[in-house]
Specification:
The protein is of the alpha/beta class and about 475 residues long. The chain contains 17 helices and 10 strands.
Amino acid sequence: MTLVFSTRKKSQGEILLQFTINTKMSDFTPFKMRLVHLDLKGAPPKISYFSEIFPLFRALGANGLLIEYEDMFPYDGQLRLLRATHAYSPSEVTEILRLARLSELEVIPLVQTFGHMEFVLKHAAFAHLREVACFPNTLNPHEAESLALVGAMADQVLELHRGARWLHIGCDEVYYLGEGEASKQWLQQRQNSHVKLCLSHMRAVASHVRAQHPGTTALVWDDMLRDMPQDQLAVRLMEKYRECGFLRLWAASAFKGATGPSQALPPVEHHLRNHEQWLQVAGRGPGDTLQGIILTGWQRYDHFSVLCELLPVGIPSLAACLQLLLHGSFTEDVKRTVENFLGVSSLEIKDTVSEGSGSFPGSDIHALVTQVSLHLRSSVDALLERNRYVTGWFSPYHRRRKLIHPIMVQHIQPEALSLLGRWHPLVQQLEAALQVAFYPDTVEEWLEENVHPSMQRLQGLLRDLREAAVPQPLPNSPGWDPSQDP
């Protein structure tokens, strides 16, 4: 079993086999393996997008993928109910693997087997296997049926990933472990602990993987095994794991999805600093301590949370981070290399994200999401909350009563119509671009969360203006009935 560890939320460890690496691409990096994490529990791309983006991953310096399928995997039999509406078919998974091979990207599948089990335990058929009855996130490790369940999930995944040298079995953020009745009784026994309980389940799953798939090694995140304050991690933690027998470790950084559950644009400078720190950690340890690094790109914080940065929006951050790992620093020359790869005129590292177009796959989504995220809400808020004519003469009080001085319609309506004319076509372009790369439920969710609230506020203002512009009886005038006042 191998550990994967990180400064954010995941970890990795001992590597049993080495890869043959293109030395030209790894002359300057201590990380022989550089895996891009695809978190498919939110906004899973269509296969056509993978066909475009995998060659770019390889060109940028990646040589592997960690694919976290969650409910996008085509589970079958009793597990079929785990499939999402647009889950990949077996042939589509096979196509993903073929595309990865074409770009010389080794695939490691990830199956959650302990924490983050919401996509399984939310179903009534498996709810009895929860650690705590009312929370679907953590599996009860004391039930034999629990191991049978995750074993079956792992078997189905590896059946479509024959020859995989590793299977990542998750085991991060196992919240509420120890709060189930069986766990409480177990923990009352002498020398038992939460870490021991966690390790026992990890070992059971890893043993199943090794027994059923002898050529495959289980990887796990390490966060549930840490017993040290956050400020004492890094090298001391590496030494601790080596002393426990994990002689070779992997790191896990993040290129997106790590700075807020509803983050829309990745802060590139923040993620570059994260990778610079990992290079420093690798430089302080023995030369062969860190065998590789997983650049995580979380799409949701958990199964029930909102979407964070979409994959196309995270590509500039990923490109910068991969190139930094390859070259050891992010110099102006490296920055220009990244700009050439992306087809952008300037990559502004210190800004939230660079505005402007590019030529990389999904660059149209990146450009439109950037415009919407930075300017849509703020422009509508400025009109509704800071325009003196709106706040002074068409407040919520006036709007409910459809009262407005006729001249104020002339002050407010043109600006509102201009704003609508600016955003409506951009939103249509964004929707069309999203539909090319993503399935309908992703398009619907992203627009409903990030676009519709502001557009509906703007359209509501224009509707109320039209209705108020129709002559209405004034207060205390004939035909006005105070009892009908809302």
